Amino acid sequence: MAAGSALVAAMATDAWQQARDGVVALWRRVHPERAEVVGGELEVLRTQVLEARQAQDPDTEQALEGVWRVQLQALLRRDPQAAGELRRLLDDQLDPVLNPGERERVHSIIQNATVSGGTSIQVGRDYHGNPPAPKA
Questions:
Q1: Residues sharing a CB contact under 8 Å with residue 33, sequence separation 6 or more, in sequence order
Q2: Which long-range contacts (CB under 8 A, 24 or more apart) does 63-67 make?
């Protein structure tokens, strides 16, 4: 999820070409027949992000993030081994071009739970274990 947000944020920076090239290279390895199409989609994405920022339209920018999160998740479903490569892309190419506020926003996780008569377990990473037994 962070990669989709970081990608959209990076599209509004001077390093957008580097971000684009990194994502296209990932696609070329996992889904080569779609790589050039994805490159074109990223060009359109950049235009849309710049227009949304110019219009001070955060809703459109968030919608674009959602679209790219879904696309990146689909890519990882096709090749789960690409997760490490996507993490390197995020850490090495996308994160460094973001300003500190955008970087914090990209990596923030907000979890809310309302529990009535049950148990809730919220974790920021993998959870291995069994939930507590319900009280009798």
A1: none
A2: 64/8, 65/4, 65/5, 65/8, 66/4, 67/4
Q: What is the pLDDT of residues 1-10, one digit of tens each?
A: 677 778 878 8
Q: What is the pLDDT of residues 59-72, one digit of tens each?
A: 998 899 889 888 88
Task: Determine the Cα–Cα distance for residues 49 and 76; give it in Å rounded to an integer.
Answer: 24
- As a three-state string, the secondary structure of 39-76 is HHHHHHHHHHHHHHHHCCCHHHHHHHHHHHHHHHHHHH
User: Considering the chain, what is the average pLDDT of its residues?
Assistant: 81
Structure tokens at 31: 């889904």
